[in-house]
Amino acid sequence: MKKLDESLLLRLPPFSQLSRAQIRKILDQAQTKRLDEGGSFFSEGEEATRFYLLLDGHIRVIKTTPAGDQIIVLHIAAGQLFGIAAALGHSLYPATAQAAAESLALSWPMPLLQEFSAIYQGFATENYKVVGARMQEMQSRISEMATQQVEQRVATALLRLTNQAGRKTDEGIEIDFPITRQDISEMTGTTLHTVSRLLSGWEKQGIILSTRKRIVIVEAHQLVRISDNLT
Q1: What is the pTM of this model?
Q2: 57 pLDDT band (50/70/90 cuts)?
Q3: Which end of the chain has fewer CB atoms < 10 Å from its terminal CB, N or C?
Q4: All domains of the chain in start order, with CATH
């Protein structure tokens, strides 16, 4: 990892409170892994041997239900840690980490997660923040599934994605990684037919633009109204 300049990581949360020398020590113990869209960094149920930092790309976190259905439970943007199973008390990965676009990550042996947290206060602080944020998002998703109508859930999912990975364009706010209607159905616990019907309707109303793997939010305030059931 000597070719990767530590200055490139200074602004990333796990490293922002560390010196260049400390970052260098961490990088010297890392391995790189690059995946094409659709590849997996690890799969649900595998032994949790390594943890990761996403440098570029986007990750969808997928769980399989007892009935064999796949549900997208989280999305992870560049600059974030993932695969931190040990911090959650797991010896196996509880979900699959799949590249939603071409992705590049650093990884370290799992025992170093505890070691880095013990030695580097900034790394520990970020690790705790990640765990807390992921737990909070999971609680929000469970609440949405239990209390929101399908139309609200789909609108809320699109708004969450624009907050996590939105890119301003001349047309509106584009979700900055490939996403399909099947992905959205797996995020919201509904059918592909229902998602297609909703998105087609919203496109006719000028709320969104949608192609095979691209969604642009044109009228975000209208999605907020749908999400809040104000329509």
Answers
A1: 0.79
A2: very high
A3: C
A4: 6-145 (2.60.120.10), 148-227 (1.10.10.10)
